[in-house]
Every structure is written in structure tokens, then in C-alpha cells.
Amino acid sequence: PFEVLVVGGGPAGAAAAVYTARKGFSTGIAAERFGGQLNDTLGIENLPGTPYTEGPKLTDSLKSHVGQYDIDLMDLARAVELRASKDVGGFHEVVMANGATLRARSLILSTGARWRNLGVPGEAEYRNKGVAYCPHCDGPLFKGKRIAVIGGGNSGVEAAIDLAGIVGHVTLVEFDVKLRADEVLQRKLRSMPNVEIITNGQTTEVLGDGTRVNGMVVKDRASGDERRIDLEGVFVQIGLVPNTEWLQGTGLELSKHGEIVTDDHGATNIPGIYAAGDCTTVPHKQIVVAMGEGAKAGLGAFDFLIRNEPV
Ligand code: FAD
């Protein structure tokens, strides 16, 4: 058994484990894929103190940082079930896909999230070559260019407002007959001169020249007519899904979006169980935020363990 078991090995989980190991606690990390979303990321330009790095490189340096401590890193290990201790200070159990059960008095859940894909031809092919998911990360790469934002909920409309200040032109495409974002955001978006809004529109294909995106096809859902739009970038904003399906029905409080509800110490509603990063209700899904939240959850687990004797 561990004193602290971190489930998830992205930036949040790696930070949490370094913090608890440095407190002298026996720490394990169980991760389906160490590095998490970093493995799918090319350039990273917004990690303060690191003007430029790449996802796989940052994964390697997190791995070597974790490796400098006595941390038991279990990679390719997927958690499928949580059995929370009924006693404060008792052992929680995490059942793994291979049937093993890991036990720890404190858990830090950091299983991250995944962007919902459009699932249309060209999207996967041009990922990181014009198809993007994170406006904070990739917006500046499209300075002065033409882009589309797919999705008219709050995140799509926020992204469109953000990007309209950087890029040349934004086309916002919403599948429904009307935008679903808050009225105040819609008003702001409509006031911007370089934005076109298409409702009742279905994106059917992302087009490119083999190297980069150069357009997309949008179908008018009323008439069935298809229209080609020339552009250089497509930001997909149709939802970020937390990897918390395995936690449903366990007594752990989740938001209506499936995010783990945490307080400002990273604590969940179950004593001894902490959470950090993109799988939680903490806003702004970013590497630096996930790392900071991981550190907080690690220190939260420390506070818990020194106050609660083993039962
Ligand atoms: P994740 O990175 O999602 O890691 C989750 C971890 O949990 C992984 O190890 C995963 O394998 C594991 N896991 C999931 N389910 C289970 C399970 N059941 N059992 C065990 N392990 C599990 N942010 C920036 O700040 N700057 C950028 O430039 C940037 N670019 C991005 C580009 C792309 C293409 C993407 C997808 C994201 C980008 N982000 C960027 C966002 C950033 O990657 C995330 O905010 C960050 O990785 C979140 O860290 P995390 O540790 O919370 O989760």
C-alpha cells in the first residue's frame, strides 16, 4: 500500500507526486499514459519560464523529475473502479483494468480530460496543422489569418471573441438554430466587425493542401446546400470531456459536466481524496494551472495525512 496514490500522470499528477514524495510519503502514480495530453501537443509557448517547448519533451522532463524521487510509476495502468474508505484515515482502494487493486490512505485524482472531436474527414489529418482545440495555446499562431470556430456554446463564443482580437476573420459555426452561449457573450461577439456567425450549420469536412488546412465545408441544415469557406485554421470547441466516467456512482461529487468538485485546497467531498487539473471544476484547462493545482492537491494530501492517524 501507498500513503499517497496519484491516479493520472499528466502535468497535474506529476506535480502532485513530486510534492508528496518530497514530504517523505510513499507515493505511487498509476497512469494510463504518462504525460497525458502533452503527448498530443506540439509547440508550448505559454508555460512561464519556458519560452518554448514541445509536449513530448515536457513529458520526458516530467518523467525524469518524477524519477529523481522514490515514486512508483505505473505507466499503462488504467483505473476502472474507486472504493472509498468508510473511515476517515482508512485505506481507499483503486481497482485497475488488469484486475490489480491499489490501496492508499490518500488519493489524488488527476485523470485529465479530452477534447470532443468533430469526427469529420480532414480533422485528424490536419490536427496541429490548422485544426486546433485550445485558443489560449494556438490563437497567436493564426495572427491576421482567417479561422473558424466550431461550436456556439460558451466556450465556442468565448474563443471566437478572443480570436477575433488576434486573427483577421472569424467564422463561428453552430449546429443548432441559435447560439447557446450567455446573452452577454453573444452581444459582445455580434459587436465585433470581423466575425460572421452561421447557425444551423453542420461542418462536414476540413480541407487542406496535404500539408495545412486551407478550407472547410459547411452544410446549411435547412436547405442541405454545402458551402466551401477558405481559411487557414479551424478551432473545435464542442466540449471538453473529463475522464471521470469510472468515478460515477462512487459517492464522489461530480458536477453536471462530470468534473470532480474540489474546494480551494483541492479536496473532494470524501476525506483523504484530492483532485487536480483538467478533470476538476477548476476553470481554465492549461498546463500551468494543472501543475499548480497538482502541487496544491499534494500539499492538501500532506495536511490530511499528518492530521489523521491510520485506522
Ligand atoms: P492530462 O494531461 O489529460 O493527463 C491525464 C492523465 O490521466 C494521463 O496520464 C492519462 O493517461 C491519465 N488517465 C486518464 N484516465 C485514467 C484512468 N482511468 N486511470 C489511470 N489514468 C488515467 N495547455 C497549455 O497550457 N499550453 C498549450 O500549448 C497547450 N496545448 C495543447 C494542445 C493540445 C492538442 C491539447 C489536447 C491540449 C493542450 N493544452 C495546452 C492543454 C493541456 O495539455 C492540459 O490542460 C493539461 O495537460 C492538463 O493536465 P492534467 O494533468 O490535468 O491532465
UniProtKB/TrEMBL annotation:
GO molecular function, one term: flavin adenine dinucleotide binding
Statement: the UniProt record of this protein carries the keyword Flavoprotein: yes
Cofactor descriptive note: Binds 1 FAD per subunit.
GO cellular component: cytosol; protein-containing complex
Top-level taxon: Bacteria
Disulfide bond sites: 134-137
FAD/NAD(P)-binding domain sequence ranges: 3-294
Cofactor(s) annotated in UniProt: FAD
Protein name as annotated: Thioredoxin reductase
Keyword Oxidoreductase: yes
Any one GO biological process: response to reactive oxygen species
Coiled-coil residue windows: none
Organism lineage string: Bacteria, Pseudomonadati, Pseudomonadota, Alphaproteobacteria, Sphingomonadales
Record: residues binding FAD: 3-18, 268-278
Self-association state and partner proteins as the record states: Homodimer.
Binding locations of NAD(+): 146-160
Family (UniProt): Belongs to the class-II pyridine nucleotide-disulfide oxidoreductase family.
UniProtKB keywords: Disulfide bond, FAD, Flavoprotein, NAD, NADP, Oxidoreductase, Redox-active center
